[in-house]
């Protein structure tokens, strides 16, 4: 296995564009890659080109009628198809939608190929992570489910156990649904409570279908959860489950809409807490999968102040050379931000927070909504995979 890491990127990946008023602004990817370049992060990553997913690859997780509708509506963007989730407020149709979506899927497929074949130890597609797309329906800004396609490709090429970790503020419902009956794929999602945030799923009782019980793990977090609570939840649930499942590869989705400045969610993480989550996933990969790790982007709608810094850290961690939190953002990048967005750019790669948390082993507080959520997840899932939730 090559110890180098790769980022799969093509400038046309930013053609995934729902329009100027849509929260999923493609400039967030442009600013991320520009920041990574200015910081020298890309010097430690092999930049690999992307190609569109083929129809056969798309059909590995999507239905034929859905792919056909995406293709047709891409040519006729004034039409809509609400039954397939196309032409809605979340997923407006745009010309070239199929091509742009297929390219993102192809980038994640290439990242999966690089990792599974051992050509690279780690790979990342920051434009990917479109985890809400269902087999026959667009949902939550997501047209094709690139993450699920990458996982399915590895299964089709011999993988027997894959863990998917989703740290987006929104539940990773599409990936969970696609593999809900497949015991070879363990999906883990930490997200804001479905009582307060789209898509309204991801309760701790969602544990996998009959024959695949324990293959879905959900940690719904109270709105307002900050770094300490989020990291407490992660470390109380994710490492013991991943160790017990013993996957061959970890696939992760790193939506950074859990940040306190994100306009669409109610979690309160800092960039420093998000960075700590990336390091935690990396450490699990090093411990359990000999470092095999495929990472993607995801949500994130504070497109200047948060996304480039959060994913800049993610890229550096995937590269094997994590940036110190106190790193200053380059002056050239700040000028570019002001020219493109007409607003000042952040000056440092930190929010000035310390990503500390109280370990689960140090005591359970039944008066805490967070602790009750953690305990519910442990109670529902741990016995299904042979773990004792009381430890």
Describe this structure in words.
The protein has 391 residues and is α/β, with parallel strands linked by helices. The protein has a single domain, classed as Histone deacetylase domain (Arginase, Chain A). The chain is 36% helix and 10% strand. It has an 8-stranded parallel beta sheet with strand order 2-1-3-8-7-4-5-6, sandwiched between helices. The longest helix has 20 residues, at 97-116. The two termini are 36 Å apart. Keywords: Acetoin catabolism.
Brief digest:
Belongs to the histone deacetylase family. With 391 residues, the chain is of the alpha/beta class. Helices cover 36% and strands 10% of the residues.
Give the ordered list of helices and strands.
EHEHHHEHEHEEHEHEHHH
CATH superfamily: Histone deacetylase domain
Approximate shape: globular
CATH third-level topology: Arginase, Chain A
Query: Number of DSSP helices?
Result: 11
**Overall mean pLDDT score?**
97
Which structural class do the helices and strands define? alpha/beta
Main sheet properties:
8 strands, parallel
Helix content: 25-40%
> What value does the Rg take, in angstroms?
19 Å
Strand line-up of the largest beta sheet:
2-1-3-8-7-4-5-6
What percentage of the residues does DSSP assign to strands (E)? Answer: 5-15%
Strands, total number:
8
How many structural domains can be distinguished in the coordinates?
1
Uncertain runs with pLDDT below 50, 5 residues or more? none
Query: What would CATH call the architecture?
Result: 3-Layer(aba) Sandwich
CATH class term: Alpha Beta
């Amino acid at each position: 296995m090559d110890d180098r890491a790769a980022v799969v990127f093509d400038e046309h990946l930013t053609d995934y564009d729902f329009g100027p008023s849509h929260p999923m602004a493609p400039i967030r990817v442009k600013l991320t890659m520009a920041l990574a370049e200015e910081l020298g992060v890309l010097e430690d990553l092999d930049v690999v080109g992307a190609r569109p997913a083929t129809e056969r690859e798309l059909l590995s997780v999507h239905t034929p009628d859905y792919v056909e509708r995406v293709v047709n509506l891409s040519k006729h963007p004034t039409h809509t198809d609400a039954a397939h989730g196309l032409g809605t407020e979340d997923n407006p149709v745009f010309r070239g939608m199929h091509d742009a979506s297929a390219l993102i899927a192809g980038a994640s497929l290439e990242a999966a190929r690089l990792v599974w074949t051992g050509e690279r130890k780690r790979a990342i597609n920051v434009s990917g992570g479109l985890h809400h797309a269902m087999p026959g329906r667009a949902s939550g800004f997501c047209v094709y489910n690139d993450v699920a396609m990458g996982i399915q490709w590895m299964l089709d090429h011999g993988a027997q156990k894959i863990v998917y970790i989703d740290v987006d503020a929104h539940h990773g419902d599409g990936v969970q649904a696609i593999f809900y009956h497949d015991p070879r794929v363990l999906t883990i999602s930490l997200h804001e409570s479905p009582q307060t945030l789209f898509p309204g799923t991801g309760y701790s009782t969602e544990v996998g279908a009959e024959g695949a019980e324990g293959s879905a793990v959900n940690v719904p977090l109270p709105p307002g959860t900050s770094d300490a609570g989020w990291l407490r939840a992660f470390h109380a649930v994710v490492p013991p489950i991943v160790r017990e499942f013993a996957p061959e590869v970890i696939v992760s989705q790193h939506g950074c809409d859990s940040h306190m400045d994100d306009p669409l969610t109610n979690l309160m993480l800092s960039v420093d807490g998000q960075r700590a989550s990336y390091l935690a996933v990396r450490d699990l990969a090093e411990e359990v999968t000999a470092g095999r790790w495929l990472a993607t982007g995801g949500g994130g709608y504070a497109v200047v102040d948060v996304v480039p810094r959060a994913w800049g850290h993610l890229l550096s961690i995937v590269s094997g050379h994590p940036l110190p939190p106190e790193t200053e953002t380059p002056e050239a990048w700040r000028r570019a931000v002001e020219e493109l967005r007409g607003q000042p750019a952040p000056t440092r790669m930190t929010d000035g927070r310390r990503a500390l948390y109280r370990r689960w082993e140090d005591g359970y507080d039944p008066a805490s909504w967070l602790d009750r959520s953690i305990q519910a997840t442990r109670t529902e899932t741990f016995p299904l995979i042979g773990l004792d939730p009381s430890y």
